[in-house]
Amino acid sequence: MEFAALIALTVLIGMLIILVAIAVGKQKGEISDQLEQKEEDSVAEESAVKASTAKKQKQQRPRKEKAQQQTFSHPLLASSLKSHSGNVTSLDFSSNGKYLATCADDRTVRIWSTKDFLDRDHKCLRANVELDHATLVRFSPDSKAFITWLANGDTIRIFKMTKKDDGSFTFKAAPEDFPQKHKTNVINIGIAETGKFIMSASTDTNILIWDLKGEVLASIITNQMTNSYAAISPCGRFVASCGFTPDVKVWEVCFGKGGEFKEVARAFDLKGHSAGVHSFAFSNDSRRMATVSKDGTWRLWDTDVEYKKQQDPYLLKSVPCQSSEGSRVALSPDARVVAISNSCSVAMYSTSTGQLEEEFHGVHSEEITDLRFDINSRYLVCSGDRAVRVFHNAPGYRAAIQDMQAMLKKAQNEGMKQRLKQQIQEAQSALDTVLTAPKD
C-alpha cells in the first residue's frame, strides 16, 4: 500500500510539474508575442513618422531659385551684354575690330557687333557647341573663323563663319576636333596673327604648338612648376607664359622662308618680380608688355630689344596694386592704359604716370574671368557672371590728349601743329561725350 501511495504521489507531482511548465511556456509565448507586436508597431510607427516628415519636408522644401542677374552701374559703363544664360568664361575681339566673341557654359558662343555697343539693344549671333560647352574662344586672323576649347572633350574645335546676304553669319564646326594631348586643365588657346600656328597651354607647364590641321609641331615645357597664363603676341612671332616662378618666359616660334616650321627658340625673360606672376599682356605692336604679380605690383616693360644679341627687356614702371589668385591684366593696344582685375573689381592705371585713374567695384557677382581692350583702345571689356561689361576707356582718351599736347609743344612744322590741334579737339570732344552721356 505504501508503495502504491508513493507511486501515486510521484505521478501527481510529475503532472503538477508538467502543468506548471505548460503554463510558464504559454505565458512566455504570450509575452514574446506581445513584444514582437510592440516592436512591429514601433517600427510601423517610426516608418510612418519618417514618411510624414519626409512628406512635410518635400512640401516645405523651397524651389531652387535662379541666380539673380548682377546689377551694376557706373558713369563709364557703356553697356552690359546679357544674352548668355550661363557664366561667360572667355571673350575675344576680332582683328578687324568689328566683332566680339564670348563663350559660356550655356553651350553657346555669341558674336556681337562692336558698333552696337552704345545702342540700347544688343543683338548677337549664336553658335551652338554640340554635346559640350566652350571655356575659351579666339578669333582667326581673317575674322572668318574662331577656335574654342571644349570643356568635356578636352580639345580644340574650329568653327567657320560664313557671311549671308543680310550681313549675318552661319557657323559650321570642322568635321573633326583636334586630338586630345593635354593631361591637365587648359588655361588658354590662341591663333597667331600670321595664321601659321595655334597654341594651347595647360597648368602642368606644357604648351603645345599646332598647325591649323591639328598636328603638333612642338611641345614647350616651361619649368615654372605650374602655368597660370600663356598667350601669343599680337605680332604672331612669340609665345609667352607665366606661373609659379617670378618671371615671364618668352619664346619665338620660327618658320622658314617657305612657311615651313623650323623650331621654337627661347627669346627673352621678364625678370624682377619677387613672387609668381598671375598674368601678362602685350601691346598691339608687341613692343610693350604688362605683368601683374603676387608680390602686389604691376609692371610695364619695354620688349623692343635685340634679344638675339642677348639684350634684356627694360623695366619702365613698377606700381603697387591689389591683385588675387586669378587676376588678369590688360594693356591697351596703344600701351597708354593698364587694367587689372582683382576678384570682382577692376582698376585702370596710366602707364605714363603709374597713377590710378579709375576703379570699378563689384563689376560682376563672381570672379572676373577675362579682361580685354578693343583694338582701337576705345573700350575695356570684362566677363565674370552671365553679363559682359563694356566700359569707356576714359583714361585712354586723357592719356592721348596729354601725349598730343606734349607733341604740340615740340612741333615746329605748322602743318603738324594744325593736325595735332585737330586731333586734340576730336579726342577732347569724344571724352566729353563719354563723360556727359546719359545713363540708363
From TrEMBL:
Signal peptide: none annotated. Keywords: Coiled coil, Repeat, WD repeat. It comes from Salmo salar. WD repeats lie at residues 81-113, 179-213, 270-302. The gene is LOC106603440. This is Transducin beta-like protein 2. It comes from the Eukaryota. PANTHER family: TRANSDUCIN BETA-LIKE PROTEIN 2 (PTHR44321:SF1). GO terms for biological process: endoplasmic reticulum unfolded protein response. Residues 35-71 are annotated as: Disordered.
